[in-house]
UniProtKB/TrEMBL annotation:
Record carries keyword Transferase: yes
A cellular component term, taken from the record's GO annotations: membrane
Record domain Response regulatory: where: 3-122
Protein name (database record): Response regulator
Annotated NCBIfam families: sensory_box
InterPro entries documented for this protein: CheY-like_superfamily, HATPase_C_sf, HATPase_dom, His_kinase_dom, PAS, PAS-assoc_C, PAS-like_dom_sf, Sensor_HK_TwoCompSys
Domain Histidine kinase as annotated: residue spans: 412-504
UniProt xrefs under Pfam families: HATPase_c (PF02518), HisKA_3 (PF07730), PAS_9 (PF13426), Response_reg (PF00072)
Keywords of this entry: Coiled coil, Kinase, Phosphoprotein, Transferase, Two-component regulatory system
Amino acid sequence: MKKILAIDDNEINLVLLNQIFKLYYPDFLFLQATSGKEGIEVAVTEIPEIILLDILMPEMNGYEVCAYLKKETATCHIPILMISALGQNPIERTKGLNAGADAFISKPFSQDELRAQIDVVLRIKKAEDLLRKRNESLEVLIKDQTTKYLQSEERYLQISEHALEFYWEVDSKGIFTYVSPVIEKILGEKPDRIVGEKSYISLFQLHFGRTKKSTIEESFLNQSSFNDCEIELKIKRETIWLSASGFSTFDKKGKFYGFRGVCYDITKRKEAEIALKKSLKQIKNYQKKLKYLNTELTLVEERERRRIAENLHDSLGQTLSLAYIKLSSIMNENFPPRVQKTINEISELLNNAISESRTLTYDLSPPILYELGLIPAFKWKLEQIEMKHEIQTTLHGENQKIGIRKEFNIFLYRIVAELLNNVLKHAQANSVELEVKKEKKYYYISVRDNGIGFKKNLDKKAKLDGGFGLMSINERLDNIKGRLEIKSVMGEGTNATVIIPTSEG
């Protein structure tokens, strides 16, 4: 049975949440904990579908509990919805999201708002669980296939150590003068039917389906040695592979009188190589399908973000705006000072709520991206950074157009936003430049800062060991056949460049 865990030191809140879940989520088992430590123990033991977490609690507050759960392997995938009266404060909301929370809802809340938040989180978790299961199945398949291939390779290596081999000798005309008896076990022909009767060209079938001389023939004509030449023979509807090596022989006077050599039966090895190539091709197809699935999942997530953002704007945003307008219409009336003060305070609260809902809408899915395009969205993002963080920002290439497929615009926007967030978190910079340009067959989007920089330079394709942010960027870039280059010098800042082909569109 699916479970939902609520962690709150207030028993009344737990009773209220229990009643809500009994009404709207009867298929879920409601679990509760009255402290952070107890909540962690229940989460690790029961593995619920979602955790509702209060912030203000004794011993361990909600931020500490959230950070701990997100670090643990067993619970890191569980979505956490923070519920607190502190949610009105954007600083506290940001602190909660940075601790690992997946969503935030402020007290007091309406049941409809709570249900909507929970439904969204559960939908995203369901998609993530599906992808995780498919990843695990693919990993098991690849591991199993790899184990089988390694076992096959080891088996065939053991066979090759005891492989059948025959020695041979031909005269200056290429006619066999000697073959060792074991040739009968390999090719099914008796030596006396070969010696003096067949040439190396006919026995090795060098004349079948060839328009030019083989390496063995060229070596014979040039009286030079050859090594490990693979020969494919068709004998009685069966394919036999030989590895042939030989060297020229001369008499005491230096006159060429033939070749001597050895042939190894490598049929098993070749069959294994062919099977391995076929299996590797299948694995590549699986990887291609997984990559496609990841792309589709990301696009679905972005579409869901956009839908939620539009609903916030069209419903909550409009309601707040209308309430503010109606309240403003009576602000100039003659009310007692106490009433007038309360009206002013309500007006300010409504104005803050409108601002917060607008910010949340843009964070979820910026409307300017879909209405005006990438460059205006970049410009808006820089303006927000300059306004909130007092960092000087500059946009170069404002008139440049990026002609990639519309559904991939959000990938590129998220990548640039992630790079800008990295500057805010780590660079300690006071200036950021964003440059967009096109050269030949590529677009170059660079984020430069004048911060502290770092020692380690990443190569042309930034490695995944740079953290989750870089891994997320690389996954998105794979979807549009792009790459990331990062250059940094200690004390001189960092330059991160996203490179994507112009043909992707």
